[in-house]
Design brief:
The structure is a single chain. Strands 15-16-17-14-13-19-20 form a seven-stranded mixed sheet, with helices on both faces. Strands 10-9-8-11-12 form a five-stranded parallel sheet, sandwiched between helices. Strands 1-5-4 form a three-stranded mixed sheet, covered by helices on one side. By secondary structure, it is an alpha/beta fold. Helix 1 (about 55-75) packs across helix 7 (about 220-230) and helix 9 packs across helix 10 (about 305-320). The protein is globular. The protein is built from 15 helices and 22 strands. Bound molecules: 2-aminohexanedioic acid.
Length: about 500
């Protein structure tokens, strides 16, 4: 008889243990140690996962390196076909994966399905890239000479991914890396190793050759940093918080490793007097409280013109108060739990900061602990009104269900406030005036701009990423993602049979 686990999940011996995937084989961490993943809605144990270290990372990077020559030599359309097969399998496994995701990170099932769908979308987009991977063919400045550019893979891509989109974001990074001919080592967030294991099993099922994708689970310190510092890693893709991003950037810079970072946002929705108010309310509620506010693209600031501010705030309070909290697997639940106890504490801390800063707490503001909610990491949908644009509440990323309303006089003031943060991921405007909409498209300084829609819901075939402290100028998704995972090679073929000197022999003589 196995002993009872700490949360009453049944015999501990029956809880599944999952290893790393290295060189095409599943194996435990070399130390034999494991860590747990638990359901944030009720604390139930989901499984035990390899608590890996530097040696495991070294083995995974070596496996990726060993697989690289053959993978790179595989014709890109063939690589694309494998991604296509992966996309089809992901579609088949969508429901199972979505449920596992809701159990492991808490987002409501419908959103979890959307997360998997985003993985499917990027798989199909990048499968198609296998038959494109366009470069340029340009006329040479010299006669009888051919000039073109081709994309080359870099080698080993180290991908460090967050827990809030545990399928979509690994796919955003893996799909372009793979179609371009790179091999991958994936290090998923410690909070969502199960999603990563399931995802990698599907890649295995799709028939990717051994070593092309490797998975190493464990902490940022024990796995993430050794991975970034590994001399055999050619490119690092990271999505996560700014502090970790800066540490990674320093480590990558030391080795001159290419890096793509996405580090969050403080996204604003501007609502002007001429907006369709009901539509704006829908967009704000969805963007602020969807995924429990745990999206980089979540709306955490509403910037509203004075004329409709009272009306908007009243409607937001009503809608936020009616949101149903609970397990994301339960039908009718709107908002799931936060990821862990530390996330709840962080939101609580910001509620205190907001009150100390003199903002008006309009609704929510406390952990939600009634009935079954006490088992999980729930927090009330919270709105602060009359927030100062330069206050901490309006400046810092909170990553939870906390929305700040900032009142302004007009469009000009709204744009200044919208731009007045260090982040630059996503922004939106609700207006019925087409000229104002175009002005906003020009004036917002974020990587993604929405008109008459919320700040979330980017589609995978356009570039995703932001300006300023949100990243380092790279973009994910869209064909822009290929720029991160490829190197340009310019190729010249001179078939004149004589030495032709560029910039010299094409100049008029005398
Ligand atoms: C994120 O939170 O990092 O646009 C990703 C969106 C989603 C992806 C969010 N498609 O909200």
């Amino acid at each position: 008889m196995g002993e009872e686990g700490p949360m009453g999940e049944g015999p501990a011996s029956r809880v599944a243990e999952h290893g790393n995937f290295i060189g095409g084989a599943w194996r435990p961490a070399s130390s034999g140690r494991t860590f747990e993943s638990r359901n944030p809605a009720d604390g139930r144990l989901i499984g035990r996962f390899a608590a890996s270290q530097g040696v495991d990372v070294t083995a995974a990077v070596a496996a990726a390196r060993a697989a690289f020559p053959d993978w790179r030599a595989t014709p890109a359309p063939r690589r694309g076909e494998l991604l296509y097969r992966f996309g089809a399998l992901l579609t088949q496994h969508k429901e199972e994966l979505a449920r596992a995701m809701t159990e492991e990170m808490g987002k409501v099932l419908e959103e979890a399905r959307g997360d998997v769908q985003e993985g499917i979308d990027i798989a199909y987009l990048m499968a198609g890239e296998g038959r494109r991977l366009f470069g340029d063919v340009v006329p040479s400045e010299l006669p009888d000479k051919w000039a073109m550019s081709v994309r080359e893979p870099l080698g080993v891509a180290a991908l460090i991914t967050p827990w809030n989109f545990p399928v979509a974001i690994p796919c955003w990074k893996m799909m372009p890396a793979l179609v371009a001919g790179n091999c991958v080592v994936l290090k998923p967030a410690s909070a969502t190793p199960h999603c990563a294991v399931l995802l990698v099993r599907i890649l295995e099922e799709a028939g990717l050759p051994p070593g092309v994708v490797n998975l190493v689970t464990g902490s940022g310190a024990q796995v993430g940093m050794p991975l970034v510092k590994d001399p055999d890693v050619d490119v690092v893709g990271f999505t996560g918080n700014g502090e970790t991003g800066r540490t990674i950037a320093v480590a990558a810079a030391e080795r001159g490793t290419r890096l793509s970072m996405e580090l969050g946002g403080k996204n604003a929705i501007v609502v002007l007097d001429d907006a369709d108010l009901e539509l704006a309310v829908e967009g704000i509620i969805w963007s602020a409280f969807g995924t429990t506010g745990q999206r980089c693209t979540a709306c955490s600031r509403v910037i509203v013109s004075d004329g409709i501010a009272d009306d908007l705030v009243a409607r937001l309070i009503e809608r936020a108060g009616a949101l149903r909290l609970g397990s994301g697997l339960e039908p009718g639940v709107d908002v799931g739990p936060l990821i862990d106890a530390a996330a709840v504490e962080k939101v609580e801390r910001y509620v205190a900061i907001g009150q100390a800063e003199g903002a008006v707490l309009a609704c929510g503001g406390r952990p939600a602990i009634s009935g079954a909610l006490a088992q999980g990491h729930f927090f009330e949908a919270t709105i602060f009104d009359r927030v100062e644009p330069t206050s901490r509440l309006a400046q810092e990323e909170i990553f939870g269900p906390l929305l700040s309303v900032i009142r302004v006089a007009d469009y000009e003031a709204a744009v200044n406030v919208a731009r007045g943060v260090r982040y630059g991921l996503s922004s939106s405007i609700f207006t019925s005036d087409v000229s104002t909409a175009f002005r906003a498209m020009r004036d917002f300084d974020t990587g993604i701009v929405y008109v008459n829609a919320g700040t979330i819901g980017a589609e995978t075939h356009l570039p995703f990423g932001g300006t300023k402290a949100t990243g380092n100028g790279q973009r994910e998704a869209g064909h822009a993602a290929l720029d991160t995972y490829t190197e340009w090679k310019a190729v010249y073929v001179d078939y004149s049979g004589r030495l032709q000197r560029a910039q010299i022999d094409n100049q008029p003589q005398g």
